[in-house]
């Protein structure tokens, strides 16, 4: 299990919260320690985590989580509501940088992420979360690369492309369904005609005194004509119409 998965399970899940993202960080400047402070716990890893509550109305928060050397567990340290975030500083908008600053109402921290790409991902999630859950006093994002600020627009663009493709596919299927419907109607007509031919074919053979043509000859000609009509009906929608003319009816 990765460190971020473990943090989500140990720190946020028990409180019915969902972690949206996290970034491993170190301070760019050493924190001033009070003169009387003693008994430090040694080296540790620090994560800045973004989470939301599962219970409505949804509340978002930023939490600092630490993992001390030699321990497999994580400890929740400072926490701020997202409404307290005033400014997000990406430091340099012209190049990939792992450095960033977070300014809250009552705190200011200068961080460096483990990688620039991890910082970029966290910033995109943070920006999207602010746009979604904050209605007033949204934090200011300064010195951020366009790909960070445009992360949400990229998602919308991809969604629009998928929607357009689905609409085109649906239209094609509807047109295909209409063509098949017309073919089914013509096939039903052919079926009825075939039933009439079958009934006629089962009648005793007789000859028309006026021209000497037997019932069998009429049936054979009719069936050949029906075959030609059916091929035309099935292929007419594809603009490749085929026609097999019936032979001339010869008196028997």
Automatic annotation (TrEMBL):
Which chain positions lie within coiled-coil regions? Answer: none
Compartments (UniProt record): Cytoplasm; Membrane
For this UniProt record, give its keywords in alphabetical order, as a comma-separated list.
Acetylation, Coiled coil, Cytoplasm, Membrane
Q: Which Pfam families match?
A: Sec3-PIP2_bind
Q: Spell out the CDD domains in the cross-references.
A: PH-STXBP6
Keyword Phosphoprotein among UniProt keywords: no
| InterPro entries named in the record | Sec3-PIP2_bind, STXBP6_PH, V_SNARE_CC
Q: Name one GO cellular component term.
A: cytoplasm
What is the topology of this protein in the membrane according to its UniProt annotation?
Answer: Peripheral membrane protein
- Residue ranges occupied by any V-SNARE coiled-coil homology domain in the UniProt entry: 151-206
Function noted in UniProt: Forms non-fusogenic complexes with SNAP25 and STX1A and may thereby modulate the formation of functional SNARE complexes and exocytosis.
Record's subunit section? Part of a ternary complex containing SNAP25 and STX1A that can be dissociated by NAPA and NSF. Interacts with STX4A.
Q: What is this protein called?
A: Syntaxin-binding protein 6
Organism (species): Bos taurus (Bovine)
């Amino acid at each position: 299990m990765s460190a971020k998965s473990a943090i989500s399970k140990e720190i946020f899940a028990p409180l019915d919260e969902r972690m949206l993202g996290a970034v491993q960080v170190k301070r760019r400047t050493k924190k001033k320690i009070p003169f009387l402070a003693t008994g430090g716990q040694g080296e540790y890893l620090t994560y800045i985590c973004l989470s939301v509550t599962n219970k409505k109305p949804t509340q978002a928060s930023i939490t600092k989580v630490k993992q001390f050397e030699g321990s497999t567990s994580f400890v929740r340290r400072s926490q701020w509501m997202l409404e307290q975030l005033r400014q997000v500083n990406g430091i340099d908008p012209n190049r990939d940088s792992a450095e960033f600053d977070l300014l809250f109402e009552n705190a200011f921290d200068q961080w460096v992420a483990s990688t620039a790409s991890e910082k970029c991902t966290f910033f995109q999630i943070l920006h999207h979360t602010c746009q979604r859950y904050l209605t007033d006093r949204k934090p200011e994002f300064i010195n951020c690369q366009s790909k960070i600020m445009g992360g949400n627009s990229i998602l919308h663009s991809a969604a629009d492309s998928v929607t357009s493709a689905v609409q085109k596919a649906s239209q094609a299927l509807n047109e295909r369904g209409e063509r098949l419907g017309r073919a089914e109607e013509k096939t039903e007509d052919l079926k009825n005609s075939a039933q009439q031919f079958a009934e006629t074919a089962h009648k005793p053979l007789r000859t028309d005194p006026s021209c000497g043509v037997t019932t069998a000859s009429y049936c054979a000609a009719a069936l050949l004509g029906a075959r030609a009509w059916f091929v035309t009906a099935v292929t007419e929608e594809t603009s490749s119409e085929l026609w097999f003319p019936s032979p001339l009816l010869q008196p028997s």
